[in-house]
Specification:
The protein has a two-stranded antiparallel ribbon. The protein contains 8 helices and 2 strands. With 182 residues, the chain is mostly helical. It is globular. 29% of the residues are buried. Residues 94-176 form the Peptidoglycan binding domain.
Length: 182
């Protein structure tokens, strides 16, 4: 899985400039919020933010920092899903989904020890992923993806239930991030 392709896909899915009144993120461009752009050194207008700047943010904050490049060495489809989920929900949420799914799939620790759900990809998470894939193979990666997407879908619905303004986004979230993979 090529990170350039993943970034291109997420930018296409996120679209251009938006300032939806129900979106707590405020002005965004290519899926990058104004706050994230500012934290990473961009001081211009959000409508004019260069694509190369957005690509740099995606690579740094949503691929390299959370460790998804290391996940990609073992499970490229899982890494691609974590990247996309991390963009939409935050990398700590996406990483937590992976850890929760691995714990639920370890057959009461017969295959590998439970992970502490610290929502960070580290050596223990990568070891558990490797043990799971060694046992389950490519079919296991498919099942792991399904578990991560199930957690993601449940969170989208909970977000819409807890804040009715999020209902404006629920269909799109499910259509572009869950149904498109199924």
């Amino acid at each position: 899985m090529d990170i350039h392709e993943l970034i291109g896909d997420v930018i296409a899915r996120e679209g251009g400039y938006s300032d939806h009144p129900a979106d707590r993120g405020g002005p965004t461009n290519m899926g990058i919020t104004q706050a994230v752009a500012r934290e990473n050194g961009y001081g211009g207008g959000m409508r004019q933010m260069p694509r190369a700047f957005a690509e740099k943010i995606y690579r740094k904050l949503y691929w390299e920092q959370p460790g998804y490049a290391f996940v990609a060495e073992q499970a490229p489809r899982v890494a691609a899903e974590l990247f996309d989920t991390g963009v939409n929900m935050g990398t700590s949420v996406a990483s937590g989904f992976l850890q929760r799914a691995l714990n639920a799939l370890n057959r009461n620790q017969k295959d590998y020890p439970d992970l502490k759900i610290d929502r960070m990809i580290g050596a223990r998470t990568l070891q558990a992923l490797g043990a799971f894939l060694a046992l389950r193979g490519s079919a296991g990666e498919t099942v792991l993806l399904a578990a991560i997407e199930a957690l993601q879908g449940e969170r989208y619905i909970a977000l819409a239930e807890s804040r009715p303004a999020n209902e404006a986004f629920l269909y799109g979230w499910l259509a572009s991030r869950i149904a498109q993979n199924g």
